Structure formats: structure tokens, C-alpha cells
């Protein structure tokens, strides 16, 4: 088939052909919003991973994969007579103009980044009110990763004054939740232990917010550090013709400490 030369039009034509009931790909034709959503989330994380690794060639490809997800959802919507890609692009363009009156309107752009964030939140609050979403937490997406959603829920509640005013109060709450978790571990059934673990994680996310630390980014960093240091353990053991399975915890702890001293 002949395809347009313009990259965006070409991509949309490819997607339309893939979804064609007669000449398309059976797998693509069979998909729904629900079946594609997990791939969309996965592609967003792969974009973040490429950025964290500083791999710009990889980032180019991952951004393409993520763009394709938007095109895929828009094509499914067009097939169902709901909206199309132009509607999506128009809506986000209108939203960006409305949320940046200091750039596209008459407001002064002589504002700090903090003031612009505050203004952005005010505009979003007005948009929620216009959509008749009365509850403060109503439109915090259920599909977000749990840690990210916890932070957003807390941030939204803090906007209306439901928040600890001091970091020490959050830390005291963490200590309280740890005690409750220990008590649950010793005396209560597994479902109660899971509930108390969730409470502790929720307050940890709150502490991260108070410290102005993105908990998702912080945990990704901790994950990466763990991988580096454990890989060091494996490499050192392999040099000794050994492996983690054949080693004691004390041996591996010593190698972990060596990796830590080496800045890994």
C-alpha cells in the first residue's frame, strides 16, 4: 500500500491499516482499550528507564513506542465513532493554552516556578469543578502505580489543609505504624499484616512528599543501586569460582560492604 510521506500521517495510516477488519492484523483488530492499557503503561516506564540510563538513542525508540500507543488508542476510538487523533491533539493543545495564560494570554510570565505550579493546580481545580467532580480525590487515577497514587492523593488532600504541618509529625507517625506492623506480625492474621504494611508504605510516601522527594524516582534509584551492588557480589564470587548459592550471608555481606565503599 502507498503510505503518506509525512511521518505523523504515515504512522496514522499504518495504524489504520493494522486495524482494518479485512486487510489488517488479526491481533491488532482484536484489541480493546482495556487490553492495550497495560502496554501503554509499560511503554511509559520504558521511556523513564531510557532517560534514567541517559541512553538517547534508546529514548528516541521508546518515545516512538509511546507515541504509537496514543495513535493506537485514538484509532480504536475512531473505529467506535468516539473521537480521533485530531480530537486528541486539539484537546491537549487547548488544555496547554488554557493552563499557560502567562505564555499564551495576558498574564505576566514574571513568576517563579513555584508560583506557576500553584497556578497550574488552581486551573486544574477549576477544570475539575467544571466537570462536576465534587470530591477532592475523585479524579486521581485508579490505574496509577500505588506509590505514585499515594503521593497524588496526599498532595490533593494537602491542598485543602488535610496535612501534617511538620515533618517530625510524619516521622512520629511512621514510628507508630512500625509498632502496629510488628504487633500485627506477632498476633494478627495475614490480611491484617498486609493492611498495616500498606499503612506504613502510605506514610512513607507522605514523608517523601514533605521532603520534596519523588518516591517513585527514589525507589527506582534504590532498585538500581541494589542491582549494581548485587551484581558486584556475583562477579566477585564468580572470580573465586563460586556463586551466591554456594556462599554464606556473611561472605555476601562483606562483598556488599566492599561495593558500597567503592561507590557502587
What is the name of the CATH topology of one domain?
A: Helix Hairpins
CATH superfamily of one domain: MazG-like
Largest sheet: none
CATH class group of one domain: Mainly Alpha
Structural descriptors:
single chain; mainly alpha; Helix Hairpins; globular; Nucleoside triphosphate pyrophosphohydrolase; NTP-PPase_MazG-like_C
Topology (SSEs and partners):
Layout: H1 7-18, H2 26-30, H3 33-53, H4 56-79, H5 85-99, H6 101-104, H7 113-130, H8 146-158, H9 167-187, H10 190-210, H11 215-239, H12 249-261
Helix pairs in contact: 1-4, 3-4, 8-10, 9-10, 11-12
Give a written overview of the molecule.
Keywords: Hydrolase. This protein is mainly alpha-helical and 264 residues long. Helix 3 packs antiparallel against helix 4 and helix 9 runs antiparallel to helix 10. It starts with 6 loop residues before the first helix and ends with a helix. The model has no long low-confidence stretch (mean pLDDT 91).
In short, what is this structure?
The protein is mainly alpha-helical and 264 residues long. 73% of the residues lie in helices and 0% in strands.
